[in-house]
Structures are given as C-alpha cells and as structure tokens.
Amino acid sequence: MALISRFSRLFRADLNAVLDKIEEPVVLLKQAVREMEEEVAADERNFKILQHELTQIPHLEQEVEASLKSLQDEIQLCLNDDNESLARSVIKRKLENQLRLKRLQQKTKDIKREVAVIDERVSSNKTRLAGMQQKLEILEEESSNELAGQRSYDIDVPISNDDIEVALLKEKQARSTS
Fold this sequence. Notes:
Blueprint: H1 2-23, H2 25-80, H3 84-154, H4 161-177
C-alpha cells in the first residue's frame, strides 16, 4: 500500500511539474496583473461616484429642511384657520419629508462606510498589484535571460577544415616544446 501511495505522489508531482511548464507563468502573471488593474480601476470609479453622491446629499438635506420649515408654517396657518383636513394633508407631507431626511442621513452613513471599505480595498489591491508587477518584471527578465542563454547554445558555429589544420599544428607544436 505504501509503495502505491508513493508512486501516486510521484506521478502527481511529475504531472504538476509538466503543467507548470505548459502554463507559462509569465503569461498567467500578465493576465492576473491585467485583471487586478481592471479591479482597481473599477473600485476607483465607484469611489469617485460615491464621493460625488456624498457632495450632493447635503444639498438635498438643505432642501428638505427648508421644505420642513415651510410646511411647519403652513400647518400653523391651517390650524389658525381651523382647517383640520388641510392641516392633515400638510402634516402628511411634513412626515414624508422627515422620513426623507432620515433616509438621506442614513444614506450618508452607508456611503461613508462603503467609501471606507472601497478605499481600504483599493489600497490593498494597489499594494498587491505592485508586488505582482515586480514579480512579472523578474519573471520576464529571467525568461529573457533564459532565452538569451538558449540562443547562445543553439548557435551553430561553422568550423572549417583550415581551422582544424591550424589547431592540429598548434597541438603538435605544444607537444614538441614540452
């Protein structure tokens, strides 16, 4: 049983080594870098959109608060005139605006939380991206060095018969002097 498990481990190790050679780590790392860059860009776009929304919400809150003040004056006017049905209608609008104001305040809190999460994620992803880009540069440099090394060994150097004769004469001369 132990022999079979050893053979299976050996086979898996060899298979993994073959797959690693086939997959070309430089190509895979380039793809991972592209995907990470796209992810960082998307997060940065979302960050800018949320920041824009955060600048718009205070204006909306001011409008709602101004509307609430106006509605409060209208309610006073209706009650002074003993027009309760009209006062109910205005009170309904006031309650709707109060609810709208609470929702805007909650949305501000939610967006701030989301902005913090995205900011953290962008920072983390930029750090990881920088590391991946460094690894890619190293791998590309190593692969170009390997290719350069392979090229130097693959070059056929033509040796003429005259070169052989000259080398033979040098060898004979070296033997005769020693």
